[in-house]
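May I ask for an example protein's residues together with how it folds?

___
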Amino acid sequence: MSAVVAARTQSHFVRAVLRQRGFRRLVGIRMVAQVGDGLFQGALAGSVLFNPEQRAGGMAIAAGFAILLLPYSLVGPYVGVFLDRWRRRSIISVANLVRAVLVLPIALYVWQGEKSPVPFLLALVVIGLNRFFLAGLSAATPHVVADHMLVTANSFSATLGSLSYSVGLGIGAALIKTVLATTFHGYALVAAGAAVFYLFSALAGWASFGADELGPEAGQRRGGSILTALGETSRGTAAGVRHLAAKRGAAYLLLAQAMFRLLYGVILLASLLLFRTVFNHGDDVSDSFGTLANAFAAGGVGMIIASFITPPITRRIGGWRWVTVVLAATGAAILGFGLPFDPVLLLGAVFVINLAAQGIKIVTDTSLQHECADEFRGRVFSINDTAFNVTLVIGMYIGALTLPENGRSATVVSVVAAGYLLAAAGYAALGGRWARRVGDDIAGSGGPRDPIAVDQ
């Protein structure tokens, strides 16, 4: 398939997906909410990392990520049971409405600069509801697009969501640098702005869909009281794990993504420390915004390109081959662009890492949707979210234990690069063998035989 034909085919698929009114609305709801995520999470991170009033080392940064990600991650599979019980329209709307309310007291605590556990506890709920919201969107997507268009739909949705998050970060950074200041007051005002976006997303979710339009189907939705549901969580999670284990292609992909995130945690911490110290030529840590903004831009470009090339490539060579390629490319990029510890060259590594991360996420989400039954999708996506977050935090702690305070370590970077190459080889052996054995791959989801795409 030539590049021109591949681009033309992908264009057909994008147009076909965008003609689905439900999908357009779902993406719009996600985009608005993720602009709020960028504002809120950027303000929290900035108040710790780039605030002259508070300097944090590698272990403190890792602990911050753990506090924000782990609590929800540990209960994530249990939340999946509720994703399969409750109307997903209600989940999407109520989660954002609650976040809009909780952001305001968090912003007040940041404004006061108090070292209190209360804002952290509230932030745990906000971040946890974000994962609940995104898992609900993923479980709802097969209700607004056909199975053969899931690859393109996931690619488009994930990319626009990530770009919206980056826009939120960019808006927050621009406000801090131009209108506000790198103080607790400045970061508090940015965080408070997220409440507006969460509120609009909640209202849009409620107005855009019927009560049962996003699933689960009435006949598949479990009834009974909340207490009964809580009593069934362990059994429901175990059933989700068994269902996922039976879908070996999806399970291998989940493991590959978890390994990617583990190694990514080490590199993420190293990059944050490098941009704040080695690549910061000023006396104020807030001067790191410029170089860090370049890294966000390089990562955003990588995600955009991944969204365009992943669907046609996976339709041609299969998802497992593409995941193998991007894992290996990540290891090579870290060796080639990361080891010189040059801020310009490192942007090349950031580009490849983000391209790979987005490509793997698209393939993994599509495989879960394609292979797993609808009554299990909520639990399966919650299990995926748990692995997604826990492995990142573990990686950051590994980085905190092995990296120097400035983040510069050729040994650690080399080991991470080798880890990616080994992950590529391991996944090619397991995932590739299974795909060839059963003849089932997401290449069939949105493949060239899609009549909608071909006929348009």
